[in-house]
Amino acid sequence: MPTVTLDSRLPAVVGGPTAKKLESALGLRTVDDLLRHYPRRYARRGDLTDLGRLRLDEHVTVQAEVRTVVNKEYGRPDPKRRRRPVRTEVVVTDGTGELLLTFFKQPWRAERLRQGTVGLFAGKVGDFNGRRQLLHPECEILDGVKEATRLTRALIPLYPATAALATWAIARSVEQVLDVVDAVDDPLPEQVRSRHGLVGLSEALEGVHRPASDSDWQRARDRLRHEEALLAQVVLARRRHRVDALPAVVREPVGGGVRERFLQQVPFALTAGQRAVGAEIAADLARPHPMHRLLQGEVGSGKTVVALLAMLQVVDAGGQAALLAPTEVLAQQHHRSLGALLGDLAMGGMLGGSEAGTRIQLLTGSVGAGARRQAIDDAASGGAGIVVGTHALLEERVQFADLGLVVVDEQHRFGVQQRAALGERGGAHRPHVLVMTATPIPRTVAMTVFGDLETSVLAELPAGRLPVQTTVVPAAERPDWLERAWLRVREECAQGRQAYVVCPRIGADLGAEEAAWPPDDGAAADDEVAGGLPPTTHSVLELADELRAGALAGLRTEVLHGRLPPDAKDAAMDRFAAGEVDVLVATTVIEVGVDVANATVMAVMDAERFGLSQLHQLRGRVGRGTKAGLCLLVTEAATGSPARERLDAVAATADGFAVSRLDVSVRREGDVLGATQSGRRSSLRLLSVVEHEDVITRARDDATALVADDPDLARTAGLAAAVAAIEESARADFLEKV
Q: What dihedral do alpha carbons 212, 218, 219, 222 form, nearest 10°?
């Protein structure tokens, strides 16, 4: 056999048919793919599976002992054999509970699965007359004879499997590969292994797949986990190193400029956090290298004011700023908000404007032809100091006279390439970049996913801002609570306040808004498949009609969703902001950036359909004035269901960082960095960005030191190859995946 390396294709090692199954079922193509498909747990020989914990519709592998086996005839006789077909029923047990294994037309099973036989059984958990059942499960007898070496070890690895490929079939292939693979090139440099007491890659792969004891797989896991963290951190450290080497125009604060005048006339006091973060950004802008900073903060913490101060500093220094927003509604909101904050300072060169001011232009896909030409001309000539827009700003024909700062709002809605597209408009000198998000990000996620950015956090709310009370309304169990919810909406409106009602769908024929489904934590989708969620959902158009005719009759009710014509969306928001509308029935188009201080109550229908961070964002739309806010999470999810538990968790805390940690913890870990589009699988398998802060911190320190000493990784061939594989694959775009 030719030399087998980690890059070898599986057909040459395990055979074509087996390789085809591994690829079609699990996406495994190479030896490295297979050996990185780690066991999800280990069965200890003699320790039977707790059958009482099995859940319906779950695909499981259990270790159990056969208690009884019987063949039963059923149905009509077979005309050819003149015998009735046989159903084999095998009852297995863990000593306390039982599980039924059922086989049709396989009477020979009774001979192989005799009483007292211990085996591994894999299949989908079903229900038969109130009993847990596996129908036609895959079976592997632990008899000590067949494949004795593998099956008589104390620890039996159980792999993530599918209905088409059982765990022991994967194990056989792994055994085959481990026996023939040659020396591997270790991505972890020897000095890193020595510093942390980590084993080499060959020993780690052997230990994780063929452990003789718990300490074997634990040592292997620690080493492989550190490797995952280090590779991600080296990619990010190299990005930071490259950015630090780029030139940028120094944008120092200018006395007597627009920034200073704005601070003199702003009608509120900045928080201590706003002043501190503003100083950090001001110092970054005064450096000769481009700023790359992430500004994260709670909903309503005042990020827009901080970003405006940065933009004005650049304008004062002779440059321009672009604010990139993910939706037209948000771009229009920013345009209005910045104009309101600056007043006559936003009308530089215009009638009634301040001579010392600047000009703000709006550029979205829906602005009229004349306004669009004016915005593009003002950007190109430098007449507009600040240009606010959507993806329309990324078009090649949109040019700037001197782009000094790019502000990206709601970073998770944009990809790395989109963010970089504006960054390249500065010509030889790169513009500074400020990325904003209102979704609080746990420190470990920030280090792993936004690790090429310096991070600033705004945690305190402006003076007088009250926390939003969040309550779960179990509509199916307590319909009277839903009636009371609508009454609360009426009470708020009777006092001159306003309300939002949020739905996951637009209408029967228009589907969902892009961001509303599937939810960002991925969990509600699983519940729906498992039957844990109600099959129907409310829609904006249908519910608005129901409310107008029923619970909210007499109130001024309007609708807002992403498929309305742009002028209709803008008009609806303008009327709501002006207090001409009592209730706005909307999709998640109002999730971010919408700021109406008079809105105090929100009802989120089918709340279980939304992700946790999304719910936190939504409730941040109310209570933005001096009155307390109320968010009602209306759900038909049953008490005790995973979906209901998530809603209860959101209602129990107003801390966005706590919600974010829970959000990330319930996602599939690999999805945090994003699945690839190139066929390579996600880089995170053993590393949890929530639980392993110590590993990530150590890996970040290692990566920073390695890249500072050897930016091209010329002295660490194994690490260089692994990093190159990441950078050349679609995983290099994982920054868009928070």
A: 150
For residues 557 and 489, the answer to whether their CB atoms sit within 8 Å is no
Is the Cβ–Cβ distance between 320 and 438 less than 8 Å? Answer: no
Task: Give pLDDT tens digits for 135-145.
Answer: 999 888 876 44
- Residue 735 phi, psi dihedral angles, 5° rounding: -65, -15
User: For position 666, what pLDDT does the model report?
Assistant: 62
Span 11-180: which CATH code?
A: 2.40.50.140
CB 622 within 8 A of CB 500: yes
Strands (E) located in 94-117: 98-104
Enumerate residues 6+ apart whose C-beta is below 8 A from 329: 560, 569, 570, 573, 589, 590, 593, 594
Backbone phi, psi, residue 104, to 5°: -105, 135
Give the pLDDT band (50/70/90) at residue 78.
confident
Contact 40, 17 (CB under 8 A): no
Amino acid at 82: R
Name the one residue in this structure whose structure tokens are 């209570």.
Answer: 623
Residues 668, 674, 680: CA angle, nearest 5 degrees: 105
Q: Which CATH topology does 258-458 take?
A: Rossmann fold (3.40.50)
Separation between Cα atoms, residue 28 and residue 38, nearest integer Å: 12
The predicted structure's pLDDT at residue 155: 87
C-alpha–C-alpha distance, residues 236 and 75, integer Å? 65
User: Which residue shows structure tokens 């060959």?
Assistant: 202
φ, ψ at 323 (rounded to 5°): -110, 115
Task: Give the pLDDT confidence score for residue 567 in this predicted structure.
Answer: 82
Instruction: Look at 637 and 414; give whichever has higher pLDDT.
Output: 637
Domains 258-458 and 468-653 share a fold: yes
**Average pLDDT value for residue range 207-228:** 95
H-run or E-run covering 473? strand 468-474
Report the C-alpha gap between 212 and 578 in whole angstroms: 71
Q: Which of 559, 201, 115, 565 is nearest to 365 (CA)?
A: 565
- pTM as predicted: 0.68
Q: How many CB atoms lie within 10 A of CB 531?
A: 11
Whole-angstrom distance, CA of residue 720 vs CA of residue 699: 16
CB 488 within 8 A of CB 500: no
Planar angle of CA 464, 466, 472, nearest 5 degrees: 170
CA distance 665 to 472: 21
Whole-number pLDDT of residue 244: 84
Tell me the pLDDT tens digit for each residue of 119-176: 889 888 999 888 999 999 988 887 644 444 454 567 889 898 887 888 888 999 999 9
Least confident of 330-339, 505-514, 665-674: 665-674
> In 3D, which of 718, 490, 503, 738 has the Cα closest to residue 603?
503
- The CATH architecture annotation of domain 468-653 reads 3-Layer(aba) Sandwich (3.40)
Give the highest mean pLDDT range of 413-417, 479-483, 590-594.
479-483
Pairing type for strands 403-409 and 432-437 reads: parallel
pLDDT of residue 167: 87
End-to-end CA separation in angstroms for the chain = 44
Domain positions in the chain are: 11-180, 258-458, 468-653
Q: Bridge partners of 123?
A: 60
DSSP assignment of 306-358:
HHHHHHHHHHHTT-EEEEE-SSHHHHHHHHHHHHHHHGGGGBTTSTT--TT--
Indicate the residue type of 486.
Answer: W
Tell which phi-psi region holds residue 318, choosing left (phi > 0), alpha (psi between -120 and 50) or beta: left
Structure tokens at 278: 């503003």
Q: How far is residue 97's CA from residue 350's CA, in Å, rounded to a whole number?
A: 80
Q: Which residue type, as a one-letter code, is found at position 159?
A: Y
- Angle, helix 201-209 to helix 167-180, in steps of 10 degrees: 150
pLDDT digits 0-9 by tens, 520-567: 333 333 333 233 444 557 899 999 999 999 999 999 999 998 888 878
Phi/psi class of residue 57: alpha, beta or left (left: φ > 0; alpha: ψ in -120 to 50)? left
